[in-house]
Design goal:
With 158 residues, the protein is an alpha+beta fold. It has helices spanning 6-36, 49-76, 127-132, and strands at 91-96, 99-105, 113-114, 119-122, 140-145, 148-157. Helix 1 (6-36) runs antiparallel to helix 2. 25% of the residues are buried.
Length: 158
């Protein structure tokens, strides 16, 4: 099965992030409603339900804004690998200890699996994404994940 194109992966990532944003916005709205609901009013000075709900709502609001910015960055991302150099929008085929791996480098969505689980999204903020950016075919990348040193050879950049 041929590797998916950067264009199709970008479109799938945008759909996935949009779905995540929709769910997160709904959860935020529910939390906000719960924080201001009549039943959330403190019954005594030890009752912190409303305060806890407001802290949760504040955290969710920050995540919503961060995801909106990430969605905008993914939407603006170009998907043409500049002269075979790994950067945002690149699909990277790599060999890690004899195992073929496919990565899609994007500004948001790290850890997301695309193309029916065959492609892992990595961001430049992650150890692997940071190691990949700027590499070319034939380069070996090294990174640490879960306290374990790992390495892979870049086989192709699209």
């Amino acid at each position: 099965m041929p590797a998916p194109t950067p264009t199709t992966l970008k479109a799938e990532l945008l759909r996935t992030l949009t779905q995540t944003l929709t769910a997160l916005e709904a959860a935020h709205a529910d939390t906000l409603a719960a924080a201001t609901h009549e039943e959330a009013k403190p019954e005594n000075d030890k009752d912190t339900r409303a305060l806890e709900q407001s802290y949760l709502a504040r955290g969710q609001a920050a995540r919503v804004e961060a995801l909106r910015a990430g969605l905008k960055a993914v939407g603006a991302m170009k998907v043409d690998a500049a002269a075979g150099v790994v950067g945002l929008g690149a699909v990277v085929e790599a060999d890690e200890d004899g195992e073929p791996r496919l990565f899609f480098v994007a500004p948001e969505g790290g850890g997301t699996r695309l193309a029916k689980g065959r492609v892992l999204v990595v961001t430049p903020k992650s150890p692997l994404g940071d190691a990949l950016v700027g590499k070319r075919v034939g380069d070996v990348v090294e990174w640490v994940a879960a306290g374990k040193s790992r390495s892979a050879e870049v086989l192709a950049v699209r």
